[in-house]
Amino acid sequence: MRFMLAAAALCVLAVPTAAHAYCRTTTQQLPPDYRPTRGCFTDGLFLFWRNACVSYSVNAAGSRSIPYEEAKRVIDASFATWMYATCANGEAPGIAVTNLGPASCGEVRYNGDSPNQNVIVFRDDGWPYSDPNSTLGLTTVTFNADTGEIYDADMEINSSARNLSTSEEVPANGFDLASVITHEVGHFFGLAHATDARATMYASYKPGTKALRTLSPDDVAGLCSIYPNPALRIVSVEVSPSQTIVAESCDPNPRHGFTAACSVPKTEEKCAATPRPTASWAASGSVALALAGVLVARRRRTGTR
Ligand SMILES: [Zn+2]
Question: With pLDDT > 90 as the criterion, what percentage of the chain qualifies?
Fold first, then answer.
């Protein structure tokens, strides 16, 4: 059976002549008919991590086809690809990332008043969303809806019915894990889909390729546009008239601390009446971004055109 990339075919001529092709994720849900090739969606507030340091954890189960250690190797390398980029000012991006070790939790969740982890988890037993055949990865980002500050980011990899590859050369029918992760890491940092098909942040992946492992200059410019140095974050003008806010000093622990488990029982608070949805949780939202490795079966045409 032959496959083709639906998204790749559509769009090459529609790339707008913007100065850049990267787009930032915002607090506003994308309209269902939005296509990045029309330009960035800019309603809402830009997302950003405030701390100079962030972290992730790979689910300890790995995948049936990719053991934990192998997954960790690829994931660490994919994050490093972004961290070792060089911004236009000659500096590294102003955010550092640490692997805090395996997580037993495999849930996409954010605990508004207890420790967390930013988990990367494989979905071996079916894709729990509506588009199992087209989606390769999904990053769900939880944020403060009043500021755009990211609180949590969890990444799911569709390993069900997928020939995920971790080898240097990707088989013709293989899906390169490093490509998928490198793309999703861009979402982790607050980038949305790029308007340029040459970018790693473009929304589709062609099986058998590894081009997404390598960042385009525009991908790097996107990361640097949010994190120009470890002390500053570039935010929406509604959040700060200067569009800059001071970053928090380096602490890679997730918000409310790190846990490898999904939650930490709060026995000491058993008796506390907590009628609040916490302020932070009440004001937060989440957005999920998929790498639509859009595969559409090419139907054989019968008859003449
Ligand atoms: Zn994506």
Answer: 69
